[in-house]
Write a structure and sequence with these properties.
Blueprint: H1 3-8, H2 15-24, E1 26-30, E2 35-37, E3 45-51, E4 54-60, E5 63-70, E6 75-76, H3 79-84, E7 91-94, E8 98-104, H4 105-114, H5 116-142, H6 145-155, H7 159-162, H8 165-172, H9 176-185
Helix pairs in contact: 4-5, 8-9
Length: about 190
């Protein structure tokens, strides 16, 4: 799916407005294990993932607590750091070599002033992210570990081969030993 088709899942952005946005995008490459953002750093650019898998997390007693995974064609950010231009409380790191397109906060704000369609697109994308966070919160508090595992496998089965299982276990709020048992028992 190309970027314009992806955007149109959220809002039917006219091609001319998409071209305004595209003209402002830069390309960035990150190596496996490279940090994009660390706690205390302000995220100045928003990323669109073309290739690779990223993880956002915080450390709790030297143990990563996974918040989210990003992969193509999604956005990649620590949302509150980018949106409010505030220091991040979290890490954003590359689990695999990653290719992304980026736009600075200031350039995006300028585009919002120039195009109601671009502003509407990003509002709707932000709403989708918020809905996803709320859904994940409900899943963590209302589903069994097996139901959480199955829901994850329906949403992102490719990550089972790309992401260390201990990170997926953290994301799902499952002990790594129980995750391993589920992984070996349940056929996806």
């Amino acid at each position: 799916m190309d970027r314009l088709d992806y955007f149109r899942l959220f809002h039917d952005i006219p091609t001319r407005d998409y071209e305004l946005l595209r003209a402002r995008l830069g390309r960035k490459s990150f190596e496996k294990g490279e940090n994009i953002i660390v706690p205390g750093q302000v995220q100045r650019e928003l990323y669109f993932v073309n290739e690779g898998v990223q993880v956002s997390y915080f450390d709790l007693k030297e143990k990563p607590q996974v918040i989210a995974f990003t992969y193509p064609p999604n956005l990649c950010a620590i949302p509150e750091s980018f949106q409010f231009q505030a220091p991040s409380k979290y890490f954003l790191s590359c689990l695999t070599r990653s290719e992304m397109e980026s736009i600075s906060f200031d350039a995006l704000q300028d585009l919002f002033d120039k195009s109601q369609h671009i502003e509407r697109l990003f509002r709707k994308m932000t709403e989708a992210v918020l809905a996803g966070v709320l859904n994940r919160h409900v899943e963590l508090h209302s589903l069994t570990i097996e139901e959480r595992f199955r829901a994850f496998c329906r949403r992102s089965p490719q990550l089972l081969q790309l992401v260390p299982h201990k990170l997926i276990a953290s994301y799902l709020g499952i002990d790594p030993t129980n995750f391993s048992k589920l992984y070996n028992r349940i056929k996806i």
